[in-house]
């Protein structure tokens, strides 16, 4: 009789959208996909035209299914736009891109939620239909909403939802403050706390620290659980050479009083992660990162290709001191 | 100075879906479209995948816009099906046909309703975008739902919604009873009672008397208003040679204890309409119709072409004794 197979060490990723999706695409090349859990931001979720839309969960699901439109970073590749064109013809709100195939996902999710299924269950159903083996968990099944107070002429002081900021206003307005409505009462979705506690390695994906990882950590229980695993936690900086590769992370950090640099990232993550991976472009800042109390690893962190993503995932995993399953 | 133009006599049609849509398409060829009002069944309306769907309003709007898929009698012609195919791929409910372009309509309506716009306002917006000049009014802005108790093996005695009966079960099960949930408290939409009171001619379209015209007349105020205009009201029988041309009208009438014939139709409509138009195929039943207390007009009533529909509309209008605006 052969000896029982040793279970693959578990890896859990705190995830936003596109950057996390790319990293996960690399991670499944260097470890067993079924041993990977992604705890995904759902503060971006919103209801539009009656449909419940989960942008980050969709981006990750489509990416791992090999169906993501990689040019835009959202939606299905080779999708068509007839419904949106009709909505435009009718004078409806058409600022949020809804491809025809992508709509099928939103219709499915909305119907299942209306039947009483929790978001985590619906997410698992969708992942399963796409053959995605990574376990995808929304951080919560409860309502969690990222809200931003903007500084924009007549609308200054107005609080808006994340998608309105990010998509409708192209994140081109100043932000005064960010809050995560519902975070206080929201319970982590089933499996989230265990996935953090049981992981051999915990990775904070190179997602926006404020509005992608922020909502995940806004759940006090999640934040505490991550802090308890600090030694096994590796964050990857989404800031390279002082700016985000994509999206408003750099600008948001500055506007909210953080330094838009790997040092600013280190200050945000130092209580939670023992290690920060920064890009070679920022090598000179490694001592400053270390002086924030984090181990600093300098490595290529721009994921041009899946092979780049796999190498970055490997770097992050190698950074964890003891990749064995913890004693808990 | 030329004399002021005499306003076109107003015509109001109590309408279901496809049969009414065809008739309205004919009516606008024989009278001024802006003088025509359709009071439309919304007992078929339902929410699926989070979207508020108004099948009869859509069928009429698309038909008058020249965009109806005339083969199916619902949806847009030349539509695509990517969202529905995705929904099937995901294992979702895909029994209700939702074309990609058609989805744009449902998205628009659902968003506007969620913003607090009444159904009648949204209906007018949609009609306006399509250039439809006929005034389309849902019979009510309140919730009205056609519910059927079916007789079907294990499910006998179960009450289901209209679309589940009509589309999902292909109206192939026996029906024990029909009710119109919400009819007691529902108020006629703004304009409905005036459109009935002020019309020079009132036409009951050749729609299903039980489940298409039934919900419209289930509002007591509407039924009373129509009864008061009995002399100006002409019904067109949807039953020809003992059966409906389309759909379950004949079967439903029999199952609910009515005669599936023009005489059965006459018994239902005699308190409301002074005249019944029946097809030439039923000419021999004209005396029986008249013995129910209605004037009977025998004319070709099958609308193969828009010209047929126009001729039928002309027949109905000619039947009204006094097409002048009433004294009210």
Tell me briefly what this model is.
The first copy, chain A, contains 13 helices and 14 strands.
Task: Tell me what the structure shows.
2 copies of one chain form a homodimer. Chain A is about 35% helix and about 20% strand. Chain A is built from 13 helices and 14 strands. Chain A has helices at about 20-30, 55-65, 80-90, 100-115, 120-130, 160-170, 190-200, 215, 220-230, 250-255, 260-270, 285-290, 305-320; strands spanning about 10-15, 35-40, 45-50, 50-55, 135-140, 145-150, 160, 175-180, 200-205, 235, 240, 245, 275-280, 295-300. In chain A, strands 5-2-1-9-10-13-14 form a 7-stranded parallel sheet, with helices on both faces. A 3-stranded antiparallel sheet of chain A has the order 7-6-8. A two-stranded antiparallel sheet of chain A has the order 3-4. In chain A, a hairpin with a 2-residue loop joins strand 3 and strand 4. In chain A, helix 1 (about 20-30) packs parallel to helix 2 and helix 1 packs across helix 13. The longest helix of chain A has 15 residues, at about 100-115. Chain A is globular and about 55 Å long. The two termini of chain A are about 30 Å apart. At the A-B interface, helix 3, helix 4 and helix 5 of A face helix 3, helix 4 and helix 5 of B.
Q: Spans of chain A with pLDDT under 50 lasting ≥5 residues? A: 322-328
> What is the H-and-E element order of chain A?
EHEEEHHHHEEEHEHEHHEEEHHEHEH
The largest contact between protein chains, plus residue counts on each side, is: A-B, 37 and 37 residues
Output the radius of gyration of chain A: 19 Å
Percent helix of chain A: 25-40%
Distance between the termini of chain A: 30 Å
Helix/strand/pairing category of chain A: alpha/beta
Number of helices of chain A: 13
* β-sheet strand percentage of chain A: 15-25%
Give the strand order, joined by hyphens, for the main sheet of chain A: 5-2-1-9-10-13-14
Shape of chain A: globular
Regarding quaternary structure, how should these chains be classified? homodimer
**How many β-strand stretches of chain A?**
14
Mean pLDDT over the full residue set of chain A: 93
**Major beta sheet summary of chain A:** 7 strands, parallel
